[in-house]
Amino acid sequence: MRRWVRYALIAAAVAYLLTGVVPVRPGERAVVRRFGAVAATPGPGLWVGLPWGLDRVDRVEVDRVRQVALGYEFGADDEAALPPGQLLTGDQNLVNVRVVIDYTVRPVDGAVSRAAEAALAEWVAGRTVDDVLLTGKAALPAALAARLRERLEPYRLGIEVQAAAVAALAPPEEVRGAFAAVTAAQADIHTREQEAAREADRLLRQARTRQYELGQSAAAVAHARRELARTEAESFRKRLEQYRRLRAENAEVLTALWWDEMAPLFARLHAAGRLELLDSYLGADGLDIMQFGTRDRKK
Fold this sequence. Notes:
The protein is α+β, with helices and mostly antiparallel strands and 299 residues long. The chain has five helices and eleven strands. The protein is elongated, with a radius of gyration of 53 Å.
């Protein structure tokens, strides 16, 4: 009988000691608290520590992504003066925001919620209502996740924020119609600005094409005039050389050249009626300009 009691006590002692052996499965991480203080955080494997009562081992699925949602409850009655998730923007307007945070490691939803609410309020307060409503769904998730990591890091909670998403973002119901009208007007302004930019670009291309054409035309005219001036100068130089050569042989050559140049001029003046030939005044005794009356002239 005494032997059986001895065996029972030994078995109970072994069983008690075995409570300090805890298997940590793959995808889990254990938190060992010894007399209330964290003693170790072992990974997958067999953890051998002090028995129950001295050590407390909590196993957490670190690979499982958890979610915590916070912010404005769309569809719920607003009983409070400023419901959760109804935030004040930097230009003193209200917006309703609801976000979802994905995180891993430890189930500390309360800490994540409080840190996320503070980061969300900080982000909204630093922007205008138009900026929040128009760019919030695109810009808020990355900014919120980064800011939340910064806020949770000093607490050493073992939390790794995976992502953030905007579940809903809208102005308060009382002014939603006005905001919709403003958004439509802003969209129309943006469309008109784009149309004006395209038209300005088209006109600019046309102006540049016209400028190029005028430049090419002016260059062609200038080239033609330079060539004409060069040809006339070359012709004049040749005639000058010819005149100098002929003058050495005939002193009256300048008079002949003068008449060669004046003859076409007199012909043009006569054709225009600005010059009259004296042939009609020739008589038997020579040139007679002392006549009275009028003389019939050929038209």
